[in-house]
Fold this protein.
Amino acid sequence: MAEASFKSGFVTIIGRPNVGKSTLMNQLIGQKIAITSNKPQTTRNRIQTVYTDMNRGQIVFLDTPGIHKAKNKLGEYMVNVAEKTLNEVDVVLWLVEPSNFIGAGEQHIVKQLEKVKTPVILIINKIDTVEKDKILEFIDTYRKIYDFAEIIPVSALRGQNVDDVIDSIFKYLPYGPQFYDEDTITDQPERAICAEIIREKALHALSDEVPHGIAVAIDEMKERKGGKMFDISATIVCERESHKGIIIGKQGAMLKKIGTNARYEMEKMLDAKVNLKLWVKVKKDWRDSDFLIKNFGYREDE
């Protein structure tokens, strides 16, 4: 490998909650890592994924929590992590909806971007949902609010123009060493990914009655001798007794559904059978408790 031509660096994807950051990440990497759900606040930790092209270089993605105005301690933590990341990376990808309207959330992000020197590539997502001739208008609208390195229209869901994003990132990355071996796609420990999978399946299965007041803690994860089988027990933590009832469901049906869906996904990831036990506990106001936020693995010092 010609070290001289190899590029490597860190990239973060920012954008308002729900704009399709995790979907884009999964398309770029080519397999499912960041969890996807149509409910905001799905991503809470900086999931690092790694894209390696042995001819060009290596991109390490930091998928930050969405930048938004904080409502509670968990919200503040998420915003701080996101804003801190902007200065630590080589390229910022800002994902937006296709629109001529630049709302307060976008204005807030522009203010944050004005404080950094990092090149920003604007990605207008969901272009499959609008007429083609509108796209140039949207590009023009955004071009006026910030000096972007590049503007790329994509459909993360359909994989349209996703390769252009990779090409643009490589343009702005510095030359440097390979950080991870080429088989690595994420440095999140398996436990963390399992917890995220359970949370994703719970968000998908539960209606809006149970808002984001759920967290998942993996209590135990053991591989049996000879491999090919994991015993995993996990607790879904919610904020109210009434939520606990909804999560468990009639005769445990809801919890069973969450467990079955999560187990299927875990088995694909771990390439082994999984024996999964799920429990539900109530911890009131965990999102406002520093101790509990840290306990669920959301640490700002990372």
